[in-house]
Fold:
Amino acid sequence: EVQLVESGGGLVQAGGSLRLSCAASGLTFDDYAIGWFRQAPGKEREGVSCLNIRDDSAFYLDSVKGRFTISSDSAKSTVYLQMNSLKPEDSAVYHCAADCLLGLDYYGNGTLVTVSS
Structure:
């Protein structure tokens, strides 16, 4: 059974930082592109960042470029999202999912990020 388990969300003031983690199990980690999506109340889900672990290429939503960094640790089968200079509009439930390039077959339950102004 494939599982994606997110952690690291919380409440932070604007300008602060958080690091989200996505621990993957039940899949061959290095064969996937794993990414982060977010959904705020009343808004559509949007893709935030995607890491192609197959070739280490990364993609970002324009509004987070320069502030967020996606990375992975294959030994731990974990993908991270380092979020700096957070803004209130970054508040959302953040989910990790795979495969963010070939189709979302697997989706985690999410972790809540709240940025206060």
The longest strand covers residues 18-25. The chain is about 0% helix and 55% strand. The chain has a mean pLDDT of 96. The two ends are 40 Å apart (CA to CA).
